[in-house]
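Much of our argument rests on the idea that a fold can be written as discrete symbols. In the encoding step, the backbone of a single protein was reduced to a row of integers, each denoting a local shape. We regard such an encoding as a compact summary of how the chain folds. The record that follows shows the chain in one-letter code together with its fold in token form:
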Amino acid sequence: MPKMKTKRAAKKRLKKTGTGKLKRAGAWKQHKLEHKHPKRRRRARRNKMVAKADEATLKVLVPYL
């Protein structure tokens, strides 16, 4: 059986935690930050976890992550 290919776009956007869950970057922090409150900007820096409903789909895209 041939090796499974990794989707490179997904590999660049996802990381695996020690327990095997997937981490992703949060949204709403790229531009127009001057009008957002500092507390909101700080919270946007944190990584988010991939939703349980999407995790199985994304693990197929990055089989060796």
Observations:
- The two ends are 19 Å apart (CA to CA).
- The helical segments are 8-13, 38-45, 52-61.
- The chain has a mean pLDDT of 95.
